[in-house]
Amino acid sequence: MDYVIEMMGITKEFPGIIANDNITLQLKKGEIHALLGENGAGKSTLMSVLFGMYQPEKGIIKVKGQEVKIKGPLDANALGIGMVHQHFKLVHNFTVLQNIVLGIETVKGGILRMEDARKKVVELSEKYNLFIEPDALISDITVGMQQRVEILKMLYRNNEIMIFDEPTAVLTPQEIDELMVIMKNLTKEGKSILFITHKLNEIKAVADRCTVLRRGKYIGTIDVADTDKEMMSEMMVGRKVNLTIDKQPAKPKEVALSVERLSVKTQKEGHTKDLVSDVSFEVRKGEIVCIAGIDGNGQSELVYAISGIERMSEGKLMINGEDVTNKSIRYKNTHGLSHIPEDRHKHGLVLDYNLAYNLILQQYFQPEFQTAGFLKNEKIYEYADKLIEQYDIRSGEGTATIVRSMSGGNQQKAIVAREIGRGPDLLLAVQPTRGLDVGAIEYIHKQLVKQRDEGAGILLVSLELDEVMNLSDRILVIFEGSIVAELDPKKITVQELGLYMSGSKKQVKEEEAGM
After folding, report:
1. How, if at all, do strands 192-197 and 161-165 pair?
2. 304 with 346: CB under 8 angstroms?
3. pLDDT tens digit string along 112-127?
4. Domain 3-237 is found in CATH 2.120.10.30
5. CATH number, span 255-345+424-501
6. If you placed Cys at 45, which of 19, 178, 347, 392 could pair as Cys (CB 3.0 to 4.6 Å)?
7. In whole angstroms, what is the distance from residue 422 CA to residue 337 CA?
8. In sequence order, which residues have a C-beta less than 8 Å from that of residue 423 and are 6 or more positions away?
């Protein structure tokens, strides 16, 4: 059998952790080969070894049967290997075209020549149905479009072997479907794809074979068509995983959050635009209310306004019956609000602090953790150890681990531990399982239901329709900054929910219908 890539016996170690322990991976020409594993299983590390970003301690890599040494991404590119990273590597104030040619520009007589590049990029985008606007700035295009730019970068460099690292983590359901079609088109043209993911339905949809890693070790390679999702999740987690959520009906009590006529406006090129317009709702203690919508319909701005990250233009906000409209973020945090933010790097963690300090970011000023401005480190580390054990946060060096070096899933668990550990009355959970594997998702869902049953009010914001349908007690659909429907998850289908989210269906209020 001819493999285009063979990685044999790859071992890669970091301080305190063996990320890849004697792993073998073989990619056939023209196949989509999924690499499945929990967060921290070693998938991204293995692909970074193939892309030359890390050097393995042991093992060999063969490309088209020849043993090679890949010292860096330039070597990988020269061998026809390209990679789309989970966090895209694009220059935001450059255009699409400039990003695609960056690093392999055509220069004649000291002048940048873009005509040929533009022609080639337009031809490639038509051939692969990757419709993009070459002159748009990266900062002005959607995440789905940015991903197409990353794919065009690989095609422009004639990469035959393409690595996609968690490519769907930031896409809407529609963009995910489009990406699957694009991947199949690429393999029809003879490209070979390595696809890192932990979403089982995506593997079922596009992959031919799948290699499973668990805690840095190779578990096995399977044919996707012959293996069901339950079997794959068991290989990945090492035990049976409950893919449905067990929860009792909600018993809502007093109001934890009351939002009255909240609006968020922005000034753009002289016009005022409503990002959130005139939104009112309540969340009671003991229920999970979900705001569902396609990304970019005002849910982020709504959460920023409630948490205090951004100002609201109009409206009133009450937590536990107290008006907190003009209170500081710290005041809200110490008066019942916890917030699991959607961007864990930007708003959730201080990446260069250690794990212990990240776990007390909203409490370090309390008497328990400081005296006269001096931190009580012993108490901080004690508290952190307790959370690490309780929430199974895995890292190379425990409380001393610098958070930047942890896997995405464990960074997320740290935020969840910190926010729930404070025993909130109101928990804003925004995309709490984005980019997590089934084991971690199951865990976080259980924690949210447990919080609800212990009497917290939970406002969940999610783009994952399964999560919305399974976790919510009530669903509020947001479309273009307004709440267009309030739905009961037990009474509607995913398809119906999708229609409300895309704006093709609106709920008629009873008084308008002449009731």
Report:
1. parallel
2. no
3. 778 888 888 888 888 8
4. no
5. 3.40.50.300
6. 19
7. 9
8. none
